[in-house]
Amino acid sequence: MAVDLGRFGVWHQAEKWGPELATGLEQLGYGALWLGASPGADLRDAEVLLTSTDAVTVGTSIVNMWKDDPAPVAASYHRLEEEHPGRFVLGVGIGHPERTGEYKTPYETIVDYLDALDEAKVPTDRRALAALGPRVLRLSAARTAGALPYLTTPEHTRQARETLGAGVLLAPEHKVVLETDPEIARTIAREYLAGYLQLTNYRSNLKRLGYADHDFENGGSDHLVDALVLHGTAVEIAEGLTAHLDAGADQVVIQQLGKEGPDLLPGYEALATVLI
């Protein structure tokens, strides 16, 4: 990777980001701010994060290849690079068949999209690919700086590192709830996971990791929910997050659930005291 991401980053959808949260996270020492949920090709939401901060890396996780053509995305990349040199990472991915009207030959579509980014001179070491299964993980290593897995576990990270080999970016996302009551934490987690656990890409990946059909019923088994959403004290959650580093991750991307906007900062501050 041509930019320094640090060991821990933060992921949120655009509606949760804002200048106050971005500035606060940079001051706490987080190495990257990731903009999730298919940001638009103009990358204006990423621009807000860049202009709100001084030096922290900002990335997309991810621009949806089915939603936005590569040409305007590449143009936006170059605009951000000119305005904020060395600070932006373009994360791209294929999305989900359930959320896309046209979804055919996904692997070939990824290859064609990366070819177009090559033609538009988006550097390989300044882009990353959403990847879960072995084939796309290998593609991420061959054609980008590395992989941005979402909704995974440290075991997936271990397997992904074996597939990627050394020297390739691996930055898995992991959700957390700063709540010591397991039932309250699981309620928050299940509310967020409900839609994701119905998506084929995620279900297939989790089944490869050993989860069974019954784990996806009734909002997810405790076993599955606890694996995907860490809860407890900051110290307890930190142990689960660092398990990704022990398994071979370069950066762990944290998504805190249950709060909004600046109200997220106290939780990230608590985590920063034990992680950074």
UniProtKB/TrEMBL annotation:
GO terms for molecular function: oxidoreductase activity, acting on paired donors, with incorporation or reduction of molecular oxygen. Residues 20-250 form the Luciferase-like domain. GO terms for cellular component: cytosol. InterPro entries: Bact_Lucif_Oxidored, Lucif-like_OxRdatse_MSMEG_4141, Luciferase-like_dom, Luciferase-like_sf. This is Putative F420-dependent oxidoreductase. It comes from Kribbella italica. The lineage of its organism: Bacteria, Bacillati, Actinomycetota, Actinomycetes, Propionibacteriales.
